[in-house]
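Reopening this ticket.

The earlier resolution said the output was attached, but the attachment link was broken on my side. Pasting everything inline this time so it's all in one place.
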Amino acid sequence: MQKTIVRDEIRLIPYYGEPEAEAMPMFAENRVHQRSSGNPYPNRVVMEVKRAECKEHPFRVITLENEYLCLELLPELGGRIYSALDKRTGYDFFYRQHVIKPALIGLLGSWISGGVEFNWPCHHRPSTFMPVDYQIETEPSGAVTVWMSEHEPLNRMKGMVGIRLAPGEARFDTRMKVYNRTPARHSFLWWENAAVPVNEQYRLVFPPDVHYVQFHYRKNVTSYPVASGVYNGIRMGNGVDISYHKNTRQPTSYFCAETAYSFFGGYDEGKHCGVIHVADRTVSVGKKMFTWAYNQLSKSWEHALTDTDGAYAELMASSYSLNQPDFAWLMPYEGKEFSQMWYPVGDLGLPFCACAEAAFSLSGNLLSVQASVPLEARLEVGDMTFPLRLSPDKICRLELNAPPDAFVFRREDGQVLLRY
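Inline output:
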């Protein structure tokens, strides 16, 4: 098994540039940003965009690559994940942005779409377009973690995210450490904001026990996946399946109801590819999709944020908050550590259940399993047991007597990985 490859290089990327920040301080106690306080003081705010010309600009790109995945990170732009490629299928399972085209969405102005943005201590973080420190850490196993850290500009708390890719695994971890280094308590949230390329064949994947979704503040509720009535001021129609991206025509957000499962994701039924997120459901309680949908506003924002890369939606996963703008607290000198995981899936079919080690789909009596790691396992369906030798290289398909009402997925040693 080869070690994870890491490259640290300067690359030219088309860039529209960023205007100077406003020199005068902005006292804006009542300014709203993402439905919470948008007061930027004492930080300076960018209040314009540049659109006259696009030039190639040198950016530092850190690449993590193993047999299955290739990740690109941009420490100079908030430490975001710039791209994530599934080498088995050639699919960019996050939205690949080919131009750096800032728009005024961030707390301090400039913000770009694409990849994965790590939002803390508030949404579309104040440092989303600022450089972060980074350090590359290697393990004897061959795994590599790229740590990206900052003292965030609002309260000077310490925040770190480590992107870890291990050899032989078609998944990666995000490992977080946050620390309140001040003598006062401060609010915070953590949402991983993953942009995904969408079209009318893209499907939202919430766990099978989710029967309703909510809007911000939980002020609107509609049934899921089949919605009806009025939601967030939008007439949903009667019996519309909103798991299909094409059936949401106005920009909105769907926050997943509380669930007993630890996964969610998205799947393109046209390209037969998608992405799964897995994290401890007792910590990563929030699961959300935001979409610009299909109206004039979506076309305007697409033009504002990209040149040729088309539409995207956001799959967002929290730690410590179920909704937005819910915040948690860091007490004086308190620290927290937590983690999340992402992995791509291929021609599996629409996933209906998943864990860190594998995703499952069902078509009639055919149960398909795609593993994110090499694994000796067994599947228990009723009084039948199926031994499985799984690999990220191949999708396993089982013909059952009937669609299962329940199953247990175990390691060979008996450890339960998933109960459906």
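Reporter confirms the inline version is readable. The first strand starts at residue 5 and ends at 15. The longest helix spans residues 296-305.
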